[in-house]
Amino acid sequence: MRNQLRMSGVSESVVDDAVLILSELLSNACRHGRPLGRGMVGDGDVRVAWHVDKSGRLTVEVTDGGGPTRPVPATPSVTAHGGRGLNIITALSDAWGVRDDVHGEVTVWAVVQAGHHHEDFATRVAAPSAAAISELALVDPFDDLD
């Protein structure tokens, strides 16, 4: 996938984000979805696809057999072992959504805009800088002790 996307002119940062998004989508499909092809050859499968359209938008998607709940972002506790995947996808993508079909299959897709990409993921989720913290004008709790 990486090499094919690079050959299609997709930037390295977009490829990196798409790979992480795809990893999260696959993890969710394996954890929450039912396999495709119940009772058929290929039992246990999920389907992965990606497409770069003429405007440079990269769409990645994962299709499974559906699950007991709809995919929605969670608000996990600090100590939770999961529940952050769709929040990561929201941070990395320009848009994402869920598409159902008449056979019960569910496709979760995400779009990353090639060429119009935001700063990298680490910049978007990094802790605030020291300058930003000093701008908060926090009160020193020991000021009253003089």
Protein described:
With 146 residues, the chain is of the alpha+beta class. The protein has one domain: Heat Shock Protein 90 (2-Layer Sandwich). It has 5 helices and 4 strands. It has a 4-stranded antiparallel sheet, covered by helices on one side. Strand 3 and strand 4 (106-113) form a beta hairpin. The longest helix is centred in the N-terminal third of the chain and has 21 residues, at 12-32. The protein is globular. The mean pLDDT is 79.
Write the layout of secondary structure elements.
Elements: H1 2-7, H2 12-32, E1 47-52, E2 57-64, H3 85-92, E3 95-100, E4 106-113, H4 121-125, H5 130-134
Antiparallel strand pairs: 1-2, 2-4, 3-4
Helix pairs in contact: 2-3
What sort of overall outline do the alpha carbons produce when their principal axes are compared? globular
Helical proportion? Answer: 25-40%
For the record, the CATH class is Alpha Beta
Please write the string of helix (H) and strand (E) elements: HHEEHEEHH
CATH topology: the name is Heat Shock Protein 90
- Structural category is alpha+beta
What would CATH call the architecture?
Answer: 2-Layer Sandwich
Main sheet summary? 4 strands, antiparallel
**The named CATH superfamily:** Histidine kinase-like ATPase, C-terminal domain
* Count of the separate structural domains: 1
**Mean pLDDT reading:** 79
Rg measurement, Å:
20 Å
The number of helical segments is 5
| Strand portion | 15-25%
Number of strands: 4
